[in-house]
Automatic annotation (TrEMBL):
Annotated protein name in UniProt: Glycolipid transfer protein domain-containing protein
Record flagged with keyword Transport: yes
Organism whose genome encodes this protein: Candolleomyces eurysporus
Domain Glycolipid transfer protein residues, every copy: 21-159
Gene3D superfamilies: Glycolipid transfer protein
Molecular-function GO terms, alphabetical: ceramide 1-phosphate binding; ceramide 1-phosphate transfer activity
Amino acid sequence: MAPYLESVKSFADVPITDAGVDTAAFLEAADGLVGLFDLFQSAAFAVVQNDIKGNITGVRNRFLTDPEANKTLELLVENERKEGKATATEKLKWLLRGLSFTCKGLQHTQADAEIELSKAFAKSYKETLERFHNFIMKGVFALALNGCPHRAAFYTKLAADSTGGPSVTSERLNEDLNKWLDALSTIVARMESFRQKGRLSKL
């Protein structure tokens, strides 16, 4: 096994064409992001991880009904809307919100070498998910954020080779992580643009 980011599908490798974001590749990359939370080793983050997992499953179930017709996220949503449904669209909405939360949290961490994960993700939470949550969910996330590992421990695990081989250098890790996050941010922004054009009214 390689260091974590080299062992999973990168969002940078998700094809984006005129037809939209490749659904299968996007879901595979999202699966990789779910595994990232395992490096946190915090039971409090299970609720976040499980929510993202459930939303991935919901979108994938729709995709598998007709992989060719639903080959992009945009087509999947359009097809569901034509049927008067919004089940997968709702799942996609929350999946993108969860991915955005994670993406921004790590981007804040990358931008400030001194900030701890708990503060970076607290900042991200205010920017992304907080306005959609009720009092109970805000409490759940407050608990999760307090359970973030120390920055140094997280980056050490992210760089480590799971088989005991040499860790990647910090330069290589930062390069790979920034590339991964930039690509994810681009996808989230593209889907937000899709929504603003009125083609994704449920998202």
